[in-house]
Amino acid sequence: PYLAKFSGTYLRELPKEYSPAEMSYLYYFEKINNEDVTATLLDLIRRKYLILDTNGENINTKDPDFLIKLNATDLVKLLPHERHLINWFINDIGDGKEVSLKQIENYPKGNYEKAKKFDNDAKDFVRKAINQARKHNFFESQNKSKAYGLATIPLIFGFIVLLLQSAYNIDNFLALIISFGFAISMFIYISSIKKRSENGNEDYVRWKAFKKFLEDFGNMKDYPMPGIVVWEQYLVY
């Protein structure tokens, strides 16, 4: 990885104004996680596009049925995956104005068509989030020609073993399997190597410091959803 300019242990403020899903794509090497849906929902509540109504429930109830209400009709400034989440939850699962947590939870249960649609909507969220995150050029394409060149060494050795076996009738089956197996493993490994860009790595190091701040100075995982009013972006991330 590139050497980052930031070297601090903690970072109190948000490193960048990335949405939770964009940050996740950077942090977890191009992966969008299930938690990103919840984090995006909380972030939309924090930014007042949605309102969290406790629906008369105690905020510390183990399994509450809060209401998520649409608070803004102008969604132009939202990112594609954020607009998709509102449409998915409020319009498709809810009544166009609001939806409860239980409605979201129960929507895909016991109905194949609804389950299939829910799964497709989830995949669309991931696809849109990835497309948005790619615009930041968090990762760079690498020249792997030298690495692939090294990977051909066991391959060449395997062909030599094969020629010796046929020329001298020597049983080199085990050496042959090891050579080709090692070569294939190297090609697969090299093709999977990813590297963050210089800016991407700088952002990653800062997000890592922000994560350490949350872990060492907060107990965010124990706060219920309404805690978003107090803790805002800290609870989101």
Count of DSSP E strands?
A: 3
Measured as a percent range, the helix fraction is 55-70%
Radius of gyration using CA atoms only: 25 Å
Strand-and-helix sequence, N→C?
Answer: HHEEHEHHHHHHH
Strand order of the largest sheet: 1-2-3
Based on secondary structure, the structural category is mainly alpha
Poorly predicted ranges: none
Task: Describe the main β-sheet briefly.
Answer: 3 strands, antiparallel
What spatial form do the alpha-carbon principal axes imply? elongated
Portion in beta strands:
under 5%
**First and last CA, distance:** 24 Å
Number of helices: 10
Average pLDDT number: 90
Features:
237 residues, mainly alpha, 57% helix, 5% strand, elongated
What does this protein structure show overall?
The chain has 237 residues and is mainly alpha-helical. It is built from ten helices and three strands. The chain has helices spanning 20-27, 35-46, 80-93, 101-106, 112-134, 145-168, 173-192, 198-217, 228-231, 233-236; strands at 50-53, 67-70, 98-100. The protein has a three-stranded antiparallel beta sheet. Helix 1 (20-27) packs across helix 5, helix 3 (80-93) packs antiparallel against helix 5 and helix 6 runs antiparallel to helix 7. The two termini are 24 Å apart.
